[in-house]
Design goal:
The complex is a heterotrimer of chains A (87), B (159) and C (759). Chain A has 87 residues and is of the alpha+beta class. Chain A is built from 2 helices and 7 strands, in the order ββααβββββ. The chains are: A alpha+beta (87), B alpha+beta (159), C alpha+beta (759). Chains in contact: A-C, B-C.
Chain lengths: 87, 159, 759
Amino acid sequence: MPIVFIPSLLRKFTGGKESVVIPGRTVGEVVRNLDQQFPGFRDQVVENDDLKSSVAVSIDGDLAVGGLLEQVSESSEIHFVPAIGGG
Amino acid sequence: MAKKQLVETTINGEPVEFLCEPRQSLLESLRDILGLTGSKEGCLTGDCGACTVLVDDRPVCSCLMLGVEARGKKITTVEGLAEGTKLHPLQQKFLEDASLQCGICTPGFLMSAKSLLDRNPNPTEAEIRYALAGNLCRCTGYDKIVRAVMDAAKVIQAR
Amino acid sequence: MDTPQTHQFKVIGTRPVRHDGLDKVIGRAKYGADYSFPGMLYGKVLRSPYAHARIKSINAEKALRLPGVKAVVTHDDFAPQTTAPVYRMGGEAAVNPLYLASNILAKDKVLYAGQGVAAVAATSPHIAEEALGLIEVEYEPLPIVLDVLDAMKPGAPIINTTIRRKERPDEETNIAGEFQFKRGDIEAGFKSADIIVEREFRTEMVHQGYIEPPNALGIFSGDGHATVYTSTQGPFDVRIMSATLLGLPEGSVKVVPAEIGGGFGAKLTVHIEPVALLLSKHAGGRPVKMVMTRTEMMRGATGPTSGSVLRVRMGATRDGKIVAAKCWFAYEAGAFPGSPVWLGCFTGLSPYNIDNFLVDGYDVLVNKPKTSSYRAPGATNAAFAVECVVDELAQRCGMDPLDFRIKNASREGTPSVMGPKFPRIGCVEVCEALKRSAHYQTPLAQVPGKYRGRGVAIGFWINGGMQSSAIVNVHADGTASLVTGSVDIGGSRASTAMVVAEVLGLRAEDVRPAVADTDSIGYTDGTGGSRVAFATGLAAYQAANDVVRQLKERAAKIWEISPEDVDWIDGKAVSKRNGVAPLTLKDLAPRLTRTGGPVTGRANVYATGVGPSFAGCLVDLEIDPDTAKVQVLRCTVVQDVGKAIHPSYVEGQMQGGTVQGLGWALNEEYVYDEKGNLRNASFLDYRMPTCLDLPMIDPVMVEVANPGHPLGVRGVGEVSIVPPPAAVANAVSAAVGTRITDLPISPPRLYRILAARHG
């Protein structure tokens, strides 16, 4: 099952846990299942059926360009990261 | 508003006449009246050298000179540096040595460097840096620009 | 994913003359300010003299009566804006349209001296300027706050009354964002440390310093379409932002990118493009050209980067292993939220594998210009602080500074600060190359009467992927053209063309690259984030391979075999059956008509597999004890560049970023008076390096191929600016025997430090 790493400022939703193992075949499914175990988490990262504009998702080190639609595998490591800007 | 004045001058070897307001700079006259947009506007206060042209073979910030002051002078801009399609060694070396990135400072550097090499055909690195200190570049860190001037000097010497 | 080519490259790695070079050395290249249209008007912006004030009224009657004035606009002429962030309005980040519009033309309040208040279009730039003086604005000045720590204190003047901190929804605040990265147990970590170093650092606001002032030429047609000619890094960003601010559908705005005279991140957003369009709309659709002055630009219409307060505490065991790190960063956002503090939080500790850390970052509003991206935004500030502390730690452990870094370096598989494990990276390779360099191997000789010192630092940048589109057209003479949407600020047109040439078996000069407008190419994210060679290069590579696929079909037709029996090897179609001579693109090109018609390859990518970069800077300097002037004697920059497509332009990025970093370290800063006015808004007093200030900058390229890209490419544009300020500070510290904690290390500041030591 995929492992979700919880950003520091959201660990209060997961009882302080730094990472949680959560089933799901897409990022969206994983987030929904996460929210079932830890109510309130989904609202921190999702808005209008898409990731919040300030949030991005990294899967195994690569940016998940599909957002909630991105597929995850059994061994995926999922990180929520702030959305990026460059120069 | 003061009436426009007629200015008769020589630009890149050709006699030129144009009308400009007394308050318009030479840079503005070249760019907006004569369509010679090769000289660039960077600061309008003579600090960056992007507008450098040669006036009677002397490098001048054209933003600090009035259009009417061009009367009777010989003006050379970057558009007059090459001979037809034959590039000046400085232009050639800037290309070969990758001495430009965005290229906005390049016309000004070419004119300042040409003036240097016309006066001092075999400058040291220190002399080149001194002569070009009035031209700012933010992209290259100057390394490849200085090398191009050194390389161009060698080409000119070999002639 | 295509596998990396294993044979020798023919074009990649060579140094051809760039395709756009000729036009640039003869003055023919058209930058934004070089465009002209019949009936054109000139636009100028009236800017606030106050750093914080309510706008009570704006009266433009007198201005409108001045002969030659055709329109005056204010914020209310924009379409009404939402205040919720709009995703994908700025690449992958979100932009708040109300803040964007208000920054350009203030709504109800001005929040920094230099903020736009109204704009005028007139028949000459001189008349437009005169008209500015005739617009009557009534201001009610408000208290100001300029210091980031003051702005965080309770009781500070509040800049935006709608901002709230998550934990305190009832309190007005200037803290617009909070970020935290945490791992392990720092209490336990520090307990186990033998040596602890703790310092507080300060940096000032600095400007990107591009030589070309921002420009825009807007044409608002009567049929609801709009065109903007502008020197921008992000044509598609200009499109969506301008469309949003004017209330137009995105597709109605066409952005034509002109050549650009530097941007370094600042030109990834809009500053005057929407105003040019707005003025054109109110001036009967006449083209309106706007070119900012240098003063206008410096005062903040174009967003410098954050000053910051940085507190770093690091602990190591005696053998030189870092066991704990605690960082507290507060960055100036300026008048609107959005400093790059979280990027500083992420990148500062990234070069090191540390089990226990806590990094807190704060985005703080102050009455200064809204900050914009500046080459590796946020990273330089953080690296300055971290690398100075690392240097001190290494010194106290009695270790060589590079050995200390190598011992603690992040490697492939090390969890990064944000969590995901690093892919193949070159941190160790960069440190080792620095150690091996002739510069490092040559001891710095002291001279009587001067202080001399050597300093080293390393830095990290994430690099970007994002979206790019590419089209390759094949011409009957066996040449090709490449069309992309990536503005060329440093030679990327050449390198992307070289990728296509390599795949198609052509010479670099046989592929003509063009940068297209927003109607003529697929969506492409801006040029920045060190992403063009990587992502647009990837799109070009894939588009060229799309051509190859089609060329194989054409060859198959000619040979009357199946396309599966055709290989493409070394730029030639080769039959897997024997007895047929291979066909090059030059051979096939004249036969396209008979074999199926035109051949065009295309690719659209949302690039993943980004390879982050590391850079190192080594600097020797000499200080005159009488004037406290710091002279750079020698400078070497080492960078992991993945695969250098055009080595000269990669070197150029390394050298350019290094020199910007040296300027940041030695002289550049925004100097404000107590009323919030910028005192040094010109190139004379905002002191950037001239060529007289510098020696040659030695670039050493290390190539650790990025496994995420078919050619091993890593972004190269940004990271070189990250280490120099710390390297300079470490060198000065070594030279004078006092730890430097504030930037810039300018003569007046250093003089005071030297005097304090002796007096």
